[in-house]
Write a structure and sequence with these properties.
The chain has 16 helices and two strands. It is an all-alpha fold. The chain has a single domain, classed as Na+/H+ antiporter like fold, CATH 1.20.1530.20. A hairpin with a 2-residue loop joins strand 1 and strand 2 (260-262). Helix 10 (232-253) crosses helix 12 and helix 13 (324-352) crosses helix 16. It starts with a helix and ends in a 6-residue tail after the last helix.
């Protein structure tokens, strides 16, 4: 009876809703069980997602996952917004230069190590360049969720949160440049440096403008609410939801000016909006707003990570005719050299800036998780590269699964070893 209902095209939306219901409840209990065995709850969400993905593929219902894409986009928006709210200017004045230097060094090191590592095993230069650019991206979601859940405080946390936000900005620029170079090599077309920088620079600038405008509008509303207003928490929550929805929608639709389309970053736009809000209102109101939003987003985060596991299985199952030995070799090298590049780059940057010992020892491990932004880059590469793009996508899909399963464990371990959380 259930299968007959699910085969009806008219009920596709409600089939997806039914899947979402199971994702939430099963993800919740998987996370709780993993915590009981001393593993991060995020790893439990993703593991359950993988299991659900396999079940859905076996039942021929994998396509329903695509109908829940908006959940992942909204969750990513709230995660980016949360990172932005941690970036208060008066706090960054003390460590701003340190964070910028470490961010740049670890991102470039990860890209360079990945490119050379792949070239050593005989991968073509265009593919190596694109995968090198993707290697820079770090998933902010598990980092943000773990630091908030365990109320992490200390030098490592203070460096980690703003760095993750800036890391995506650097990654977007590098990806835009290296993708252009790879395309020109593949097609035999020469591009000037200015032509390679135009696309990513315009995306960054547009994301900055939209994020600031939306943030200023929302902050005006928040500042208008009186401190004794009994419904101020409701106003804080609704305005935050409004701001995230607007920035996520605009980032995914893009801006259309005449016949010209401007792309926005789905990470940077809500993050800049969060930065603008938190620096335009009092510290007390920013804190109160974060508490209200955090309670609202908990179910969204469960859905996001569980969906991530399911989406990886569904996307991987949709690609046939795969040379598994070839893919396995590239993926193993990508995972290894990216990890080595992130860890060594973060250590080098932290040592150069005379950072705290815990930052030098553990920051690189915290930067290993990879998901949304990297997958977005991989999907764009698939579109631009044809058959070679499919190889890039599959490698990133598998690597993402590995990093998302084990990355949160590394983050929790690092925070615990740094004595910045109690577990």
């Amino acid at each position: 009876m259930v299968l007959q209902i699910m085969s009806s095209e008219a009920s596709t939306t409600y089939e997806a809703l039914l899947i979402l219901a199971f994702i939430l409840i099963l993800g919740l209990f998987a996370g709780r069980w993993f915590e009981k065995i001393k593993l991060p709850h995020i790893t439990g969400y993703i593991t359950m997602g993988v299991v659900l993905g396999i079940v859905l593929v076996l039942l021929g219902l994998g396509d329903l996952i695509h109908n829940l894409e908006v959940i992942s986009s909204v969750a990513l928006g709230f995660i980016a917004y949360g990172i932005g709210t941690e970036l208060r200017f008066n706090k960054l004045k003390k460590s701003g230069k340190e964070i910028v230097v470490i961010t740049f060094i670890q991102a470039v090191t990860a890209a360079v190590f990945t490119i050379f590592g792949l070239l050593v095993i005989g991968i073509s230069l265009p593919i190596a360049l694109v995968l090198g650019a993707i290697a820079t991206a770090t998933a902010p979601a598990p980092i943000m969720l773990l630091t908030r859940k365990y109320r992490a405080r200390g030098p490592l946390t203070d460096t980690l949160l703003p760095l993750v936000g800036m890391d995506d900005a650097v990654g977007i620029v590098l990806f835009g440049v290296l993708l252009s170079v790879a395309m020109s090599i593949k097609d035999g077309i020469g591009l000037s440096i200015s032509e390679m920088l135009v696309g990513p620079s315009l995306e960054l600038l547009s994301s900055l403008v939209v994020g600031v405008v939306v943030g200023l509008v929302v902050s005006k509303v928040i500042n208008f609410v009186k401190s004794r207003d009994s419904q101020k928490e409701e106003v804080f929550l609704v305005t935050a939801i409004f701001a995230v929805f607007v920035t996520v929608a605009l980032a995914n639709m893009g801006l259309h000016i005449g016949g010209f389309q401007i792309h926005l970053s789905p990470i940077l736009t809500p993050m800049i909006m969060g930065v603008t809000i938190t620096n335009s209102i009092t510290k007390v109101r920013s804190h109160d707003m974060s508490i209200v939003v955090e309670k609202f987003t908990n179910p969204i985060m469960i859905a996001f990570f569980t969906l991530a596991g399911a989406e990886l299985i569904v996307a991987f199952s949709g690609n046939e005719g795969i040379n598994y030995f070839y893919i396995a070799g590239i993926t193993a090298m990508y995972i290894t050299v990216r990890a080595f590049g992130k860890i060594s780059g973060a250590y080098l940057g932290a040592r150069l800036m005379h950072s705290h010992t815990n930052v030098r020892k553990y920051l690189g491990i915290c930067l290993l998780p990879q998901a949304g932004v990297a997958l977005g880059m991989a999907y764009q590469a698939r579109t631009d590269f044809g058959e070679e793009g499919i190889t890039i996508l599959i490698v990133v899909l598998i690597a993402t699964l590995v990093y998302e399963l084990f990355g949160p464990i590394g983050v929790k371990y690092s925070l615990s070893q740094s004595n910045e959380i109690d577990v």
